[in-house]
Fold:
Amino acid sequence: MAEHGTPYPPTIAEALRLLHQHAAIRHVGSPESLGEDNFRITVDMEVELPSRAKASGVSSSGVRRLETVTLDFGPSWPFVSPKIGLRADFPLSLPHINPHTPGELVRPCVFQGAISELLHRQGLDGILDQVSDWLSKAAGNNLIDLQQGWEPTRRDDAAGTMVFSASQLISLLPVNGSVIQLPTVYGIIDRYHFVNVSGIPEPRLTLGFLQKSEVVRSSRLSYGNTYTFVAVAPHQDGAALEFDQYEPETVKTLRDLLDKAGRLGIDSTALLKALESFHQFSQQQGKVFGWSEGFHAGIILAVHRPAALIGSPGQKIELLPYLLTFRATTRGTLLDRAVVTGCRHENSLSPELLARTSGLETVDISQPITLIGCGSLGSKIGLHLGRAGFGQLTFVDDDWFSTHNSARHALLPPEAIVPPNKAAMMQSAFNRLGHTRTQASNRDAAVAMLQEEGAKQILPQERSLIIDASASLKVLEASCHSPALRSPSRRLVRVALYGQGNSCVLMLEGIDRTARVDDLQAHLFSECRRNPELRQQIAGTENGEPVRFFVGQNCSSITTLMSDSKISRAAAMATLQLETWFQSGFPLGGSLCLGLSDAAGVGMAWQLKELGETTVLAAPDHGGWEIRLLKPVVDAINADVAKWGELETGGALLGHISQARRCLIVTDIVPAPPDSKRSRSEFVLGIDGLEDALRAAHADSLAHLHFIGTWHSHPMGGRHSRTDFKTLDRIADSAGGLPAVSLIWTPSGFECAVKAL
Structure:
């Protein structure tokens, strides 16, 4: 609605006010109605010319001291920015100019990004400032610095998108300038073209006929197969020809395109011949199959530039994509019949594109990874990695996709009567992401890791990272015992959720398994003893058992209650930690990463801790048990020995027992009770409060740790005495069948004995 007393609405009146106030504008014309609430306002903007051009009033690039600028305000103003135009004869040999039709206003590109966003950030003044700055730089030929790179030709208003791998296509360019042809598929909907170009050339036109047209949701959809023809200037004297002349996109007809090809050193005659061959080929197919609608072909002109393209580091070849269209039934030559439209370029989906988009272009995305467990957590971690460019994955899971998995799995339920294997589903999803080097195994990971051939299948690469997201204790035990994981070039990281998804834990083994995954897990529960908040989050419930429910009417159909959002939160944090390690390097030692829910239950606090090297002792004469002393235990024992000097000292041992692997992990020492006796020749462990302390330790570790024996020192050296063995016998007799440890500290190292009834 027009403001009272004016022929135009208040929004245009406000625009006039702002235009009159701008420092660079010398004249503002009256708004001109273009109909349907469209208005054009023309202004004269003063341009800062280089000193040498001020006398003449025109710069060497053809920019005048006073330039006329048009601003077209549409009905959506002030929510949508005005369209900016310069005089029709404005010089076109400048960068940052949008596609141009001769005789029309020249459209500059004054802002990197959506200009309407600039409007809402800085107002109309911000847009006018950008126009003024653009004109000043254009006058000084400073719109772009070749040290920053070559700006690709603007195609903001293109009527199509052509998808191809720029690097792959560049590798195919012939030095002799011959035209190559690539199989292509296309789709057109609402007159917008989508073109996907293969990277495998074909020497002859052999595509079978595929052309379809149908109505989809009230829109006309056409699709089919075709070819894209790629042409480049031949090398001269063994070197590529460089072209440093900017020009906006002006191609509308095939003649325009051939003229442009000629200016770029391309053999336009050879290009036309290839297109005419396709024209004849298409006409023949049209007659055979009764196709009277349009045929389409892609055209790409390759141009060597004097600098790498902006946004494409190291790539000095600009690729200009076009789509040629002609009807099968129209008479006349191809030159008379063809319509040519410029297309935007999008790189084909590839691991490299994913990595670059994710900010990981400097990371080795070819890192071999085995993902064990493709359930809710594993699938999300896997897809995070896949979308970040990591594509050399081996998926391992022997389970199939169940109905309840849809509540929190990264993949959608399949349309199949027989549910597919989860590992196979992940492989299929990765294929759609452009990853072609994935493998899938439906083997039981625990069984496979313990077999030579099975391990080769699920761990195909010697240099690899193994991610265990299985939530399986069986897999944990098998991984600790697996000969295949003893290789120093393999690293295992276990990712687990605790407390109904309130906490997430990453356990990264050290190189050469200096700290193994079971060491890290045992240390986690040891930390629960000293940290009530951690204990509460790990437990999740009062009894420490997860809340479960039945997904069917049978006793085996049970799962843990946990929301998709909690799993997604943990998976994102865990993957982010992995990506950080991929970028900065994995720590050499075993690392424990804890993610704990914040007070609001929305965020997650992340803590990292290196465990240090585990001391491994063998007891071959005592049942073949392996005793593993965690670094904090060794440090605590050394500190206690130093405190008492020449007197023997000692205490009780806490740890985790693996009967399957005959392994004892010592995580803690319980200090000697006050009634303990120390002398130069003997240490007697007291009993005052000891039983209560051991019970509390067991409970506070969420029943993961047990009393497993005692330790004492021999400051003067020496092995187990007869008294020591008797003490060990008494502890074993009362252990209810569990193994008991007797550990002796000596100046030259530890001695141990194990007894199990």
Observations:
- The mean pLDDT is 91.
- Residues 115-139 form the longest helix (25 residues).
